[in-house]
Amino acid sequence: MGGGCTCQSSSRDRIKIQKVGNFMISIYENKTVGKGCKRTLAWETSCTPEEVQKKIEEFWDTRVTGDPVGWITLKMACDEPDANAAQQIIQSAGMNLFEGSLSITFDALGNRYDLPPFVINPPVKYGTPKSSQLILAGNEVWELSLRCPKFDKDLVATVNSSDKVESLKSFFADTHKIELKAVRMFYNGKELKNGDLLCNYKLQNKSVLNVFLPALVQNEG
Q: Could you tell me which residue ranges the Ubiquitin-like domain spans (predicted)?
């Protein structure tokens, strides 16, 4: 699930679902956390603190573009709790902050470095597994095919089994530029409900979900 998508969850909060690799988070577009160069949009996740830490380590271990020294510098800055000290780390390495934020930086050679908020600040809310079964399910990564008669090809989504149905629907809606409320998903004849976890529906890797758009409404813009 590349990129991110936006859906309105309430009259006050707008949430963007962003995916980095196989890690999906919910970003609040109208809330911020952190100070100075470490200020980012607030975010939450269905993962536990241990799972989030693993995803952070995976992020730093898989950086291949730009200068390796640049990534090491950025990791040091992100690990530094004091925003002023973090900025000094960046400046001493000859790197520049775009609009004063660690989210986008440039090195002396012009290489650009983009950081997701989860490596800069902790979430405002972690997931809380309610049983050992949920903990096990949360460690599974699935590749699901989303099949809709209105489109020629299946849309493939990589998800965590503990993700909510709504986040998967949001990804589908954003990709095809339609409204979230128009999307209905079914598996083995059973409709998936927004607030449920994907692991509640006995899905597995390579499962095919059927998507119907009975009230298709194109997003504006």
A: 142-213
